């Protein structure tokens, strides 16, 4: 690739390693990154920049900005390497830019790339979106001298920054991120149960937003209805079980999504459109597969992610059918 990059933000070290390993020249690195890659022949302290990479405002991914041809080359490398990454084309005057969200597995992969450069705690990039200062402190003061403690320090950070914020009765928001980048805030859930070892939450939700019927089930919502929502961190789906006020089951809805990420006050994932609905009589159906296919056609996702979402939907059907 003849394109040259300038990279800034919390993903700078990982992406500098990622691209220089592929022969791409990185220009004008920050002082810290330059020191980390001292002697790397694909890094220059000056020179022309073809594409700039910076953090999204919420630090859930990056913005890639440059000429259409150069941007396309850079994006193609990321698309091939990170299966669950989400791609959203943006226009900024004459320049084409791409917003690339890094969900759970992409962040984990970038953690490993960064760890090949210098000691990096587990869940580094996710925890960086919560508290960069705490992550930097632990990595610079402890992990740098004791890389063998990587997992222990990462788990401790995750506990302090995320799990210590949870308690029964706490309200949790659900960031339901659409492929095009819209964030739909589903009705808040109250924590009924939590298990940090199994990485699960059980939420009760009773103030539904949006439509007057339950998606897929085509049944009306009534006053007093509630949902029990079961969530596991890193899972490709999560389940809503709907009930009437008197406890009569209405049905269940499995949302198929990029692996769920936990944050101190919310859960987050990117909705992959395809879903599974279950009725009390045992009927099970996959819905909205066409919307998943449209996501591929629009360039939001890659073929591998489409197939992974379809496989998850069929796995859920098998679970519900007992096969």
How is this structure best described in words?
The chain is of the alpha+beta class and 323 residues long. The protein has three domains: 101 residues, no CATH class; 43 residues; 155 residues, FomD-like (FomD barrel-like fold). The strands form two sheets. It has a seven-stranded mixed sheet with strand order 3-2-1-4-5-7-6, covered by helices on one side. Helix 1 packs across helix 4, helix 5 packs across helix 6 and helix 8 runs antiparallel to helix 9. The longest helix has 19 residues. The protein starts with a strand and ends with a helix. The mean pLDDT is 94.
Could you give the topology of this structure?
Elements: E1 4-7, H1 12-20, E2 25-27, H2 31-36, E3 43-44, E4 51-55, E5 61-66, H3 68-81, E6 86-92, E7 95-101, H4 104-115, H5 124-130, H6 132-143, H7 150-161, E8 171-177, E9 183-195, E10 200-205, E11 226-232, E12 237-243, E13 249-257, E14 261-263, E15 266-278, E16 284-287, H8 289-297, H9 303-321
Parallel strand pairs: 1-2, 1-4, 2-3, 8-15
Antiparallel strand pairs: 4-5, 5-7, 6-7, 8-9, 9-10, 10-11, 11-12, 12-13, 13-15, 14-15, 15-16
